[in-house]
Amino acid sequence: MKGKPKLTTCCLINHYNYRDFVREAVASAVEQTHPFDEILVVDDGSSEEHLEEVRRVCAEYDAVRLIEKKNGGQLSCFEVGVAESTADVAFFLDADDVWDPRYVESVMKVFAEHPEVEFVACNERRFFPDGRSEVTPRQTRDLGYSFVRALKNGGAFVGQPTSCLAIKRRILDDIFPLPQARGWRTCADEALVYGSSVVGARKYFLGEPLVGYRIHGTNHWFGKKYCPKDRLLRGREVQRLVEVLRLRQGLPISMANLAHHEFRTIEGANKNDYTEYQRLVGSSQLSFRRKLRIRLAIFAWYRLGKRI
User: Which interval of the chain is the signal sequence (predicted)?
Assistant: First the structure.
């Protein structure tokens, strides 16, 4: 009896003016204990000196292919990379980050042991120019489904930064193409995370910190202070994304009537999960009696999980 065919893998590195870091990023992809079937570097219209460096780096490896495009932002790099790839699983990597050599092997083990999982997020180790590093200890667990909570104005961010994400082709084909790529010039990991939730990905979190998240002076997210205007515009893009994908998937505006079922798919649901689902149901348009039944079901499952 033949076994199931092995999933093929692709590394998608998005690069824009990161000549000081891209060599380490590419090397960390090439040196994986589970080799990639494809390694694509998508340059987003970098200035000439940065483009020359990324060309030199990619030319050193037969397994690496460079794709040059006009500047369009981070999400446009994802779209181009996904369109060019033929692999079953895409691993996303920012050009300023690095991976532990065991990263892909560990993620593929999750996919093999949990074939229903379509989205894996991994814990990260933040490292600084002075040599310091820090890790927030987190537990490996099945994050379940999150489309019910995503339809509620985006809901919780059930994921990780770009370099910590591995997503199956089925999910990416349901997300892309997106009409509002210009709204995601940076922080496009949110589009991947929220988009995967809406289209029904079962998610899994790997607690071992196998991703090196570099802290430096030009991070687009870490350490940045956002004013109310920034938060407003980012929230608008998230809700627009959710609405586009909701309509594409043929989903109703709210699925709060399924909240208790979705909650039960989360392994070791914590207090934040519990609170969010209770609020989601409480603010829905369901009848008082229906709300009460669902909220009691969520409470009972949460208490049961605490006793186990």
Answer: none
Q: What is the mean pLDDT of residues 56-62?
A: 97
Return the CATH number of 9-249, one of 1.10.155.10, 3.30.230.70, 3.90.550.10, 3.10.50.40: 3.90.550.10
Give residue 158's Cα distance to chain centre: 8
Segments in the chain forming alpha helices (H):
22-30, 48-59, 74-84, 103-113, 147-150, 169-175, 189-198, 228-249, 259-263, 271-282, 288-307
The rounded distance, in Å, linking the Cα atoms of 76 and 242 is 18
Cis peptide before 179 (omega within 30 of 0): no
Q: Which H, E and C letters describe 43-99, residue by residue? A: EECCCHHHHHHHHHHHHCCCCEEEEEECCCCHHHHHHHHHHHCCCCEEEEEECCCEE
pLDDT(71) > 50: yes
DSSP SS3 for 288: helix
pLDDT greater at residue 4 or residue 30: 30
Find the Cα–Cα–Cα–Cα dihedral 155, 156, 158, 163, rounded to 10°: 100
Which of helix, strand or coil describes residue 228?
A: helix
Helix (H, G, I), strand (E, B) or coil at 273: helix
The confidence score (pLDDT) of residue 156 equals: 83
The whole-angstrom separation of Cα 54 and Cα 18 is: 9
pTM listed for this prediction? 0.94
Three-state DSSP at 142 gives strand
Distance CA 237, CA 187 (A): 11
Burial class (CB in 10 A: 0-12, 13-18, 19+), 182: exposed
